[in-house]
Amino acid sequence: MDSSSTPAPAPPRASGVARRIPSVIAPGALAVALLLAYIPVLVELVADWLRDANYHHGFLIPLVAAYLAWRERDALRRAPRSPAMLGIVGLLLAGALLILGSAGAEVFTQRVSLVVLLASLTWYLMGREHLRRLAFPIGFLLLAIPLPYVIYYALTTPMQTLAARAAVVGLKVIGVPVLLRGNIIHLPQISLEVAEACSGIRSLYAFLAVGALVAHATPIPLPARLLVFFSAIPLSVAGNALRVWGSGLGAYLVGPQATRGAIHELFGIIVFVVSLALFFGFRHMARKQWSSATSRPSLSSPPPGSIPPSFAPGDRPPPAPPTSGSSPKS
User: What gap in Å lies between CA 39 and CA 45, rounded to an integer?
Assistant: First the structure.
């Protein structure tokens, strides 16, 4: 045997990507299989967006959510990947909601289960840090889900009544003779009905979507963000009442043509823009208030020029170094 012979080279080791492929295929196949089960739910959801004018904004919500998730791509790339088995609990909950919604023909439950599924998949496959980063984009998808009819009509009826009463009060203040019977506003020349389309539910949904985005982007504490978000509700309701008041005033001064057509649509846009301006003004005030509160010095902090807290009462602080041009005292 030749002692100078070299040993056979070891087989090349698999690259890092190749080693990760088996660990990615199984979870990826699980995610695809679960999402395929929701194809009928998604088809019916898109159909609702098309046929109901109150939910036309649903087409924009997933696009905005995808953009928000894309903005987190660098942070997600740096975040540690730590799959959590607790995410299976959320997957089971999403499955239970889907089954219950299918059995009871309740599409709202089925659609909410899809959002729960996305959050649970993120937690199970990627970990808590990824879920924290994607919590808002996933939760934002809830605004694309139409309300159940029970809740919808429970909201529209009082909103119609509130808008009609507020408009009548406003008309009486400026001297317009008006009478309210139910949701019908009686003027001298015409009667206006505050119908379901005038309840303001459409503008309320739009306001909530804008309010969620603005509150999320504002660098203030969470309670302040919630306050900014929920302020969109009274502003939307007040804006709708102002729109009904303007329709009544236009019908009194101009005639029935002021309640339909381009004039009516233009006034509605103006009211919406004014309401948005008020909302951003409130957001600016909240940001200024909370920023000043967080930047205010603490009462426990020592005043300028005082002895640092690291010195005991009996200790003397070290002497200050001599400045240039001065000599130390003898």
Answer: 10
